[in-house]
Design goal:
The protein is mainly α and 296 residues long. The protein has one domain. The protein is 77% helix and 0% strand. It is built from 11 helices and no strands. Helix 5 packs parallel to helix 7 and helix 6 packs antiparallel against helix 7. It is globular and about 50 Å long. The protein starts with a helix and ends in a 13-residue tail after the last helix.
Length: 296
């Protein structure tokens, strides 16, 4: 019963982070489960099964609160489905962490770019123009494939790329990415079921993840609507930097065959503390009050 409750809480916080920032459900829950020694393919399949319900609740909540742009959501959905099929197939054939360090490096660069853009500029104006369909279709395929292979990645890739372009408010990006994720996840789970068998899914883990995620979805969508876009964008950048600092410091020494002079946990904690300090200073400090508005 205690394990059930702990996983339920994990599902709640994973979905709350994902619903507010457009990323984090698969990455956070999969990282925790893989760390316990479970097989990556089975973890990814089980997490994606729970994500069907969580992403449905999240997508519906974002739709109700007006955070969805169909011009973004539809192209992402179309190719995200195809990418999910390809990624699920290859995960059953290849090591799940093969692409992790390379994806981590790209996301770290994007995170720094997003953080600096939203953190420093006083009057952040949207650039003119819309996302091209070709770009959205390609992004959906890559996001779906990486998400299935790594047990998470749809949000970090799709949300970070779209937010960094600064063509629409972050809440529309987050809402659109969340609702597209629902359809992509269904296809990924079905593919996993055909390859490894639905009976091998971790149902004792999946069910509490579902309950926690469904509870958190409407709360997260409401939060996303109310948080000022400047703060939302800054938080997206901060979480990308923190998560991918951990990824790079974990895999880079192995690739270069060197030993880290200090522990991985200390690097991640230091990075997180620096970001928290900067964000607090920027948005809570007396010298910065009243500067969280989004100028159009």
């Amino acid at each position: 019963m205690l394990l059930f409750f702990l996983i339920l809480v994990l599902g709640f916080f994973a979905q709350y982070i994902d619903g507010v920032l457009g990323m984090g459900y698969g990455a956070s829950s999969s990282s925790f489960l893989v760390a316990t020694g479970l097989v990556p393919a089975i973890v990814s399949a089980s997490v994606h099964t729970s994500e069907i319900f969580a992403s449905f609740a999240s997508g519906l909540s974002h739709l109700i609160f007006g955070n969805v742009d169909s011009k973004i959501a539809l192209p992402l959905t179309c190719t995200g489905i195809l990418g999910g099929i390809v990624g699920a197939y290859f995960l059953a054939k290849l090591p799940g962490n093969l692409m992790t360090p390379f994806v981590g490096a790209i996301l770290l660069i994007l995170g720094i770019r997003i953080f600096l853009r939203f953190f420093w500029k006083k009057n952040l104006k949207l650039t003119k123009g819309e996302f091209s369909k070709r770009f959205l279709l390609l992004l959906g395929f890559v996001g779906g494939a990486v998400d299935a292979i790594g047990g998470g990645g749809w949000g970090p890739i799709c949300t970070s790329m779209l937010v960094s372009a600064n063509k629409t408010e972050p809440r529309y990006v987050i809402g659109s990415v969340n609702i597209a994720e629902f359809f992509t996840t269904i296809t990924t789970v079905f593919t996993f079921g055909l390859i490894i068998g639905f009976e091998n899914f971790l149902w004792h883990v999946t069910i509490p993840l579902i309950i926690g995620g469904v509870i958190a979805a409407p709360v997260a969508a409401y939060t996303c609507q109310k948080v000022p876009p400047r703060i939302l964008g800054t938080l997206v950048g901060a979480i990308l930097i923190t998560l991918n600092t951990r990824t790079i410091t974990k895999y880079l020494p192995k690739m270069l065959r060197v030993e880290m002079p200090i522990k991985l946990e200390l690097i991640v904690i230091f990075t997180a503390l620096v970001l928290v300090f900067l964000i607090t200073l920027r948005y809570v400090g007396k010298n910065f009050k009243g500067k969280t508005s989004f100028s159009m």
